[in-house]
Design goal:
The structure holds two protein chains of two kinds. Chain A starts with a helix and ends with a strand. Chain A is built from 16 helices and 29 strands. By secondary structure, chain A is an alpha/beta fold. Chain B is an alpha/beta fold. Chain B has 18 helices and 31 strands. In chain B, strand 25 and strand 26 form a beta hairpin. The chains are: A alpha/beta, B alpha/beta.
Chain lengths: 594, 652
C-alpha cells in the first residue's frame, strides 16, 4: 500500500542508487564447517514471515534439510511474485545434503522443490504419500520438472542414512494426512523437528494415539527441539477442520441457491471433509482449476476423502440449464496471494463457464495472507452487487488451524523434554511467545535461541552448550519468477516503489560540441508522473529550465562534461518539478553531443 | 480510516508552504487574514503562537514546533477533466414535493462519505469525506467524491452538516468547498475546531463560514427544511446524527454510531434520544453499515477503558500506548489513569498533540498542566513513572511508533522492561506493515499487548444487534444503508428485512445513485440515471478527475518497470548510428544483467535497421512499433517481465 512512500521519498533517487550499489556487493563470507561432533542447526527462511520455510541440520559431513518452501512477495516488494530461501550456504556443500524432509503439503513447505532441488544436490525426499502426490501434481503445472527421488513414509519408521544420521519418523495421525514429525539421531544426540504438527484432540482432550506416537520420541535423548510457532500466541487448542466444516455446512444449508466456495488446493483434509458433507447433502459438485481437481482426486485415490472420483465434475462440463440450482456446489481454486482468479472473473462478468446469479451464496475463508484482505473486500463488494450472498468463515489460518496452539505446544514440549530449543516459523513475536511456553515449563534463559533468517546455531559435541554463530548465512530472498533464480535486488525494488508513486521523467538533450548550445528543444518522456496532455505549459517551462541549466553549465566549464551536466540538469529539474507539482519523479537525463 | 492521515499532512515539502500549528486553530475565522495573505503574514502569525499557547493554558508537553506546511493544496493546479463530462443538468428534476436523496460517496467502499438531500429548491449536504489511495491508485494522496451535480446547482445548497470530525467525513472539505460555492458548515464545537485546524493547511480557509449547533438546536435552513440533531456514541466526542425535516417527511442520517450498552441493555440516554426521533414519524433512515456483518453487540468502550486502566495500574515499567489520535475520549481517560497512578505523560505524534491541544482548549481535558511533559524531560523521571502516548499503531512510516521500533526515535529507546499497548484495530490493507512493526518491537524484547490478546480496543461502529435495536426504535418507513462495502450494505438490509420491512422499501445505493421518495411518501425509487462517479484525485499539487493514463502507467511501472531504447538513425545511410542507448528502471538489476542489455541493444538495432530497409521513406511510427514489439518479445522470453517500453528514435 502506501507505506513505502516516505522511505524513498527521503532518499534522493540518485543518492540511494550509488549507495546501494556499493553496499550491495554479494558478501562472500566463508563459514567453516562445524567441528567434529557438533550439531549445527541452520535457519534458511521462515522467520519474521509466514512462508518459505527451510531449515537444516548439519553433523560432520551430512546435512538433513527440513522443508523447502516458497512465499508470495509482499507489497513492499512489488513485481516479485514468489520468493524462496537463499541457499548460497549449500552451494559448496551439495554433496553433503543427504535428505530433504517435507512435513506438509502447502507451498510454504514444498514450493521451492521444482525450482531448486538440483541446486541442493537432489537429495531423497522423505514425505508421506499425499505430500508426494501433491508435489508431483504441482510439478505438472510448471515447466521445470526435475526427476525426484522419493521415500514414502507412512508408518512410524526408522531410516539409517549413514553412520552419522538415522531418521526416526513419527507423529502420524489420521487427522492431518500430510504432516510428519522426525527425530534426527546423531551420535551426539537427537534433534526433534515436529514440523506443522497438529495434535489431534477431541474437545480439547488429546487422544491416546497421540500419546503413543510421542512416546517413541520420549525414549530418545532429545538434545534440541525445533518447532512451529505460528499458533503460539493463541490460547488453548486450534480449531479442527471438522469444526470449520461444521460452520461451512451450516452456511451451505442456509443457502437458497447455488453454493460457491473457494478452496485452497493444499488444504487436503479440510477440502475432503467439506466435499464429503456437500455430497451427503446431495449436492452436485463442480470443480474449477486443474490443481484443485487433481489434488482432490489424489485424496480420493488415497482414501483420504470418501468421494467417488466421478462425483468431481470439471467446471467446463457445467451447463446451467441442466441442473437443479439448489443442488449445485462449485469449488473454486483459491490462491494464497490473489485469492481466486475465477471468482474475480465472475465478479467482473467475464467468466466463461458460469456467472453469478441472484441469491447464489459465496462462502469465503478468512484471508490466508494479510495482504489479500483488501482484495477480498473488493471482490466481495463486486459479487454482492451482482446479487450474491457473501458469507465468510473464520479459518484463522494465519494464526491457528494447521498449526498447534499454546496448549498443544505445551503438551508436546512436555513430552519431548528437550534440552535446548529453537522456535521456528513465524514472526518474531510468535517465536517469542513460543519461548514463553518453554520458560513456563522451566527451561532456562540460555537454553533457547530465537533465530533470524540466516542464523547458524551450534551445539557443542558434549551436548552442554548451545551457541549462536556470529556469522550468518546470506538471507536475501531469492525470486523464482522468470527463468533465473536471482536474489531480490534492493535497488530495483526501490525504483519500482518510486516509479509507482511518483513516476519517471526522462530528458534527452543534444548539445553542440562547438557552440556549447542546446540544439533544438530537449525531448521529454514521462510516465506515471503527470497527465502530459493537460500539462503542456509545465512541460514547456521545464524545457526552458533544462536548456538554461545545460548551457550555463557547459559555458562555465568551457567544455562538455557529461556527468556534470547530468547532475546539474537533474538537480535543477528536480527542484522545479517539486515546486510545481509536489512530486519527485525519478529524473533521468540523457545527453548526446554532436 | 483515521490514523493514516498523518501521512498526508506531513508529506511533501513544497516551496509554497505555510505553516500549520495547533494554536492557530484559535484564530477565529473572523481573523483579519485575507485570502491573499502572503507567506510573510503567515510566518508572523506563527511567531506569536507560543505565547498564545501559554495563554490558553495548554500543557507544555503539548507544545509543538510549527513545521513547514508541506504540499497541501496551496498553489494547486486545477486540472480540467480529461473527459468531456456530460452536464448533470440533463438529469430530470424530481417531482414537486418529492424528496431526493443523493449518494456522492461512501457506498461500496469505506471512506469519502458524502450524501445530500434535495427538496424543491433546497439541498442540504451531509458530510464531506475523503479516502486514501489504494493499490489501484498508487501515488495518489487522497480521493474525494465527484460533486459535479452540486457544482451545477450551487445556488440551491443551503449548507453542509458534519456529523463528526473523522477524515472519512470531513477530509474532502478542502477540495470540495470552493467548487460548490462555499456553503456554510454546521457542526458541533469540537468538530468545527478540528475542521478549522485542518483547514488552516489549505487555501480556501477563510472563505468558509462555520456555525455551531448543539443537540437542542433547531436549525431552520429554509422554508422547507428544518434540521434537528441527536448525539450518538462514537469514538470521537461530539458525534451526532441529523434529522432533516421536510414537508414530505423526516429523514434520519445517523452518522457513525454504536450504542452505549451494558451486556446488551442500551443505556437510558440513548433510549431517550431515540424515543425523541421516533416521535417525528421518520420516512427514511440512512445508517452506518460498517459492522453489519458482525453478530451481537460490540464490545463497550467502558470495558476497553477498564482494561487499559488495569494495565496501567499493574504494569511495572514504562508504558507506551498507541491509539488513533481521534479517539480523544479514550486518550483523555488514559491520561487520567496515568496521573492517578503517578505517571507523567509524554505525547508523541503530531495529530495526537493537535487533537489533545484542541481538547484541552475546549476544556475536555481537565488535568494539571504539569502532568504532560515534553519528551526531552523524560530523563528527569524514573522509567516506571512514564507513560508515552504515541501515534502509529498502523505501521505508518515515520510515525512515532515506527521510529521507536527502529531505534531511531530521538528521545525514546525501548528496552525489555517496557510494555507496548496497541489500543487500535488494524485497518484493512495495513496488516503487513503492522505485522512488521510488531516483529521489530518484539525483537527489542518489549511486552506487547494488542486487541487480539486483550480487550484494549473496540470498534466505533454498531454490530448487528445494535443496528436492529436502532431500527426498531427509529421505526422508519424506508431504509437506505450507507457507509460500507456493498456486502456490508446487503447484510444491513437483511437486518431490516428480518424485522419486517418490506423488500420494496429498501434501496441499496451505489456511489452516484439518486433515490426519490414520492410526495405522498408511499414509494421509494432508485432512479436509473445517476450522477457522474468519476472520482476526484489529489496527486501532489494536482486536483482533477482520475488521470487513468498516469495511474495505469504507475501500476505497470510498479510491477514491471520501464525500459527506454534510444536509437540514433543516420538519415542518409538509412542505418543506425552507433549502438542504441538503454535506460531501464525497476526492471532488472543492470549491473548483473549486462548480457541481457547488450543483447537487447542488438535486438533493437536489428529491428530498426530492418524497418529502415522496408520502403523508401523513413516511417517513424512503423519503426517505433516494430521496435516495441521486438524488444518486448525478446525481454519477455528472457525474463518473463513486460516493462513499459519507450522507443526514442532520432533521425539526423
Amino acid at each position: 500500500m502506501v507505506t513505502p512512500k516516505r522511505n524513498y521519498r527521503k532518499s534522493h533517487p540518485k543518492r540511494s542508487r550509488s549507495k546501494t550499489a556499493t553496499t550491495k556487493k554479494p558478501r562472500k563470507v566463508f563459514i567453516p564447517k562445524p567441528s567434529r561432533g557438533e550439531i549445527r542447526a541452520l535457519v534458511f527462511g521462515g522467520i519474521s514471515e509466514i512462508g518459505k520455510n527451510m531449515y537444516g541440520i548439519e553433523y560432520n559431513n551430512s546435512i538433513v534439510l527440513l522443508e523447502f518452501g516458497t512465499m508470495f512477495g509482499e507489497s513492499s516488494t512489488p513485481g516479485v511474485n514468489t520468493v524462496m530461501p537463499n541457499i548460497q550456504y549449500l552451494k559448496d556443500r551439495r554433496q553433503d545434503v543427504k535428505a530433504l524432509i517435507v512435513t506438509d503439503a502447502s507451498m510454504k513447505h514444498i514450493g521451492a522443490i521444482p525450482h531448486a532441488i538440483r541446486d541442493v544436490g537432489n537429495p531423497t525426499i522423505y514425505a508421506r504419500g499425499l505430500t508426494k502426490a501433491i508435489i508431483e501434481n504441482h510439478q505438472k503445472t510448471l515447466r521445470k520438472k526435475p526427476t525426484l527421488a522419493f521415500h514414502e513414509v507412512e508408518q512410524a519408521e526408522s531410516v539409517v542414512v549413514n553412520d552419522d544420521i538415522t531418521l526416526h519418523f513419527f507423529g502420524i495421525t489420521d487427522n492431518a494426512p500430510s504432516t510428519l514429525g522426525v527425530l534426527v539421531e546423531t551420535p551426539s544426540g537427537c534433534v526433534a523437528y515436529t514440523g506443522n504438527l497438529k495434535v489431534s484432540h477431541n474437545k480439547e482432550v488429546i487422544r491416546a494415539e497421540e500419546e503413543q506416537v510421542f512416546k517413541a520420541a520420549k525414549e530418545k535423548d532429545v538434545v534440541l527441539s525445533l518447532a512451529d510457532s505460528v499458533g503460539s500466541e493463541r490460547p488453548g487448542f486450534a480449531i479442527t477442520d471438522h469444526e470449520i466444516a461444521e460452520d461451512v455446512d451450516t452456511m451451505m444449508q442456509e443457502a437458497p441457491y447455488r453454493v460457491m466456495v473457494p478452496l485452497f488446493p493444499s488444504q487436503i483434509k479440510r477440502n475432503a471433509i467439506l466435499l464429503e458433507r456437500a455430497l451427503r447433502a446431495g449436492k452436485k459438485i463442480y470443480v474449477e482449476g486443474a490443481l484443485l481437481l487433481e489434488n482432490l482426486q489424489t485424496a480420493a485415490d488415497l482414501g483420504i476423502a470418501q468421494i467417488p472420483k466421478e462425483a468431481l465434475i470439471p467446471i467446463a462440463e457445467m451447463k446451467d440449464e441442466d441442473d437443479d440450482l439448489k443442488k449445485v456446489f462449485i469449488a473454486f481454486t483459491a490462491e494464497e496471494n490473489e485469492l481466486c482468479e475465477a471468482l474475480e472473473n465472475i465478479s467482473r462478468e467475464s467468466y466463461r463457464h458460469t456467472s453469478v446469479m441472484k441469491k447464489d451464496t459465496v462462502i469465503f475463508p478468512s484471508p490466508m495472507i494479510p495482504t489479500s484482505a483488501q482484495a477480498i473486500q473488493n471482490l466481495k463488494d463486486r459479487l454482492s452487487r451482482l446479487g450474491a450472498i457473501t458469507r465468510s468463515y473464520d479459518t484463522s489460518d494465519v494464526k491457528g488451524s494447521g498449526h498447534a496452539n499454546k496448549s498443544e505446544l505445551r503438551w508436546m514440549h512436555q513430552l519431548l523434554n528437550a534440552k535446548f530449543f529453537i522456535p521456528l516459523q513465524g514472526y518474531h513475536y510468535m517465536l517469542n511467545a513460543h519461548t514463553h511456553i518453554l520458560r513456563e515449563l522451566g527451561m532456562g534463559q540460555d537454553s533457547f535461541i530465537i533465530p533470524e533468517n540466516g542464523t547458524i546455531v551450534d551445539i557443542s559435541s558434549d551436548g552442554k552448550m548451545i551457541k549462536k554463530q556470529r556469522q550468518q548465512m546470506d538471507s536475501t530472498a531469492v525470486s523464482v519468477d522468470g527463468h533465473n533464480l536471482a536474489p531480490i535486488q534492493e535497488v530495483v525494488i526501490q525504483d519500482r516503489n518510486t516509479l509507482s508513486q511518483e513516476g519517471i521523467f526522462i530528458i534527452i538533450v543534444f548539445i553542440d560540441r562547438k557552440t556549447l548550445e542546446v540544439k533544438k528543444s530537449p525531448d521529454i518522456i514521462s510516465r506515471g508522473f503527470i497527465y502530459l496532455r493537460e500539462s503542456q505549459d509545465l512541460i514547456a517551462r521545464v524545457r526552458i529550465v533544462i536548456k538554461k541549466a545545460a548551457e550555463q553549465e557547459a559555458k562555465e566549464s568551457g567544455k562538455i562534461e557529461i556527468d556534470n551536466l547530468k547532475k546539474v540538469i537533474q538537480k535543477q529539474v528536480q527542484t522545479f518539478l517539486v515546486n510545481e507539482t509536489s512530486k519527485r519523479p525519478i529524473i533521468v537525463p540523457v545527453i548526446f553531443t554532436q | 480510516m483515521t490514523e493514516k492521515k498523518q501521512r498526508t499532512t506531513t508529506k511533501k515539502t513544497a516551496a509554497t508552504s505555510t505553516s500549520k500549528s495547533s494554536a492557530k486553530a484559535k484564530s477565529k475565522s473572523t481573523a483579519p487574514a485575507k485570502k491573499t495573505a502572503t507567506k510573510k503574514q503567515a510566518t508572523k502569525k506563527q511567531d506569536d503562537k507560543p505565547q498564545d499557547a501559554q495563554k490558553k493554558k495548554v500543557p507544555a508537553g503539548l507544545y509543538q514546533k510549527p513545521i513547514r506546511r508541506q504540499g497541501g493544496l496551496i498553489g494547486s493546479r486545477e486540472l480540467t477533466s480529461g473527459f468531456d463530462a456530460e452536464s448533470t443538468l440533463n438529469i430530470p428534476q424530481q417531482e414537486k414535493g418529492a424528496i431526493r436523496v443523493l449518494f456522492f460517496g461512501g457506498v461500496g467502499e469505506i471512506g469519502k462519505n458524502m450524501y445530500g438531500i434535495e427538496y424543491e429548491d433546497d439541498i442540504v449536504l451531509l458530510d464531506c469525506g475523503m479516502k486514501f489511495a489504494q493499490n489501484d491508485t498508487p501515488g495518489i494522496d487522497f480521493i474525494v467524491p465527484n460533486v459535479q451535480y452540486l457544482e451545477e446547482r450551487k445556488e440551491k445548497i443551503r449548507g453542509l452538516v458534519i456529523s463528526h470530525a473523522h477524515l472519512d467525513h470531513v477530509g474532502g472539505i478542502s477540495v470540495i468547498m470552493s467548487r460548490i460555492g462555499n456553503p456554510p458548515i454546521f457542526s458541533r464545537k469540537l468538530s468545527i475546531e478540528l475542521i478549522k485546524n485542518r483547514q488552516n493547511e489549505f487555501e480556501n480557509k477563510d472563505a468558509i463560514k462555520y456555525h455551531e449547533v448543539e443537540k437542542s438546536t433547531v436549525l431552520k435552513l429554509s422554508e422547507n427544511m428544518t434540521l434537528t440533531f441527536f448525539s450518538v456514541t462514537h469514538t470521537i466526542p461530539d458525534s451526532m446524527g441529523i434529522v432533516v425535516d421536510t414537508p414530505a417527511g423526516a429523514i434520519v442520517f445517523t452518522g457513525d454510531l454504536k450504542l452505549t450498552h451494558e451486556d446488551g441493555v442500551v443505556g437510558p440516554e440513548e433510549v431517550k434520544e431515540f424515543a425523541e426521533i421516533k416521535k417525528k414519524k421518520v420516512l427514511l433512515t440512512m445508517a452506518d453499515s460498517t459492522n453489519a456483518e458482525r453478530p451481537g453487540f460490540s464490545l463497550p468502550e467502558k470495558r476497553v477503558v477498564e482494561t487499559i486502566g488495569k494495565i496501567i495500574k499493574e504494569t511495572k515499567g514504562r508504558i507506551i500506548l498507541s491509539a488513533f489520535s481521534t479517539q480523544i475520549e479514550r486518550t483523555i481517560k488514559v491520561i487520567e489513569f496515568a496521573i492517578e497512578n503517578g505517571r507523567k505523560v509524554i505525547v508523541q505524534g503530531r495529530s495526537m498533540i493537535t487533537n489533545l491541544t484542541i481538547a484541552s482548549e475546549l476544556g475536555l481535558l481537565k488535568i494539571p498542566l504539569s502532568a504532560i511533559i515534553p519528551a526531552e524531560k523524560m530523563g528527569d523521571y524514573p522509567k516506571e513513572q512514564i507513560l508515552v502516548l504515541a501515534t502509529g499503531a498502523q505501521g505508518d512510516n515515520f510515525a512515532a511508533m515506527d521510529r521507536m521500533s527502529r531505534g531511531t526515535h530521538r528521545h525514546i529507546k525501548l528496552d525489555p522492561q517496557d510494555t507496548v499497548v496497541f489500543s487500535s484495530s488494524i485497518i484493512p490493507g495495513n496488516e503487513e506493515p503492522v505485522q512488521n512493526l510488531k516483529d521489530r518491537l518484539s525483537k527489542l524484547g518489549v511486552d506487547l499487548i494488542t486487541y487480539q490478546t486483550s480487550d484494549v480496543h473496540s470498534s466505533g461502529h454498531a454490530n448487528r444487534d445494535e443496528l436492529k435495536w436502532i431500527h426498531e426504535n427509529i421505526d422508519a418507513k424506508f431504509f437506505a444503508p450507507i457507509h460500507g462495502y456493498h456486502f456490508m450494505l446487503s447484510a444491513h438490509a437483511q437486518i431490516l428485512r428480518d424485522i419486517g420491512m418490506p423488500e420494496e422499501n429498501i434501496v441499496i445505493p451505489n456511489n452516484g445513485s439518486i433515490v426519490d421518495i414520492s410526495p405522498d411518501g408511499k414509494k421509494i425509487t432508485m432512479q436509473e440515471y445517476t450522477m457522474p462517479t468519476e472520482v476526484i484525485v489529489v496527486d501532489g499539487n494536482a486536483v482533477g478527475t482520475a488521470q487513468n493514463v498516469v495511474l495505469n502507467d504507475r501500476i505497470t511501472l510498479k510491477e514491471e518497470g520501464i525500459f527506454v531504447v534510444i536509437v540514433l538513425v543516420n538519415k542518409r545511410l538509412k542505418k543506425v548510428k552507433k549502438s542504441p542507448d538503454i535506460i531501464s528502471r525497476g526492471f532488472v538489476y543492470l549491473k548483473e544483467s549486462q548480457q541481457l542489455i547488450n543483447r537487447s541493444r542488438m535486438v533493437a538495432r536489428r529491428s530498426v535497421d530492418q524497418s529502415l530497409k522496408r520502403g523508401r521513406m523513413i516511417n517513424l511510427d512503423a519503426i517505433k512499433r516494430n521496435l516495441i514489439r521486438e524488444t518486448q518479445n525478446y525481454l519477455y522470453a528472457e525474463t518473463k517481465k513486460r516493462p513499459i517500453i519507450v522507443p526514442v528514435v532520432f533521425i539526423s
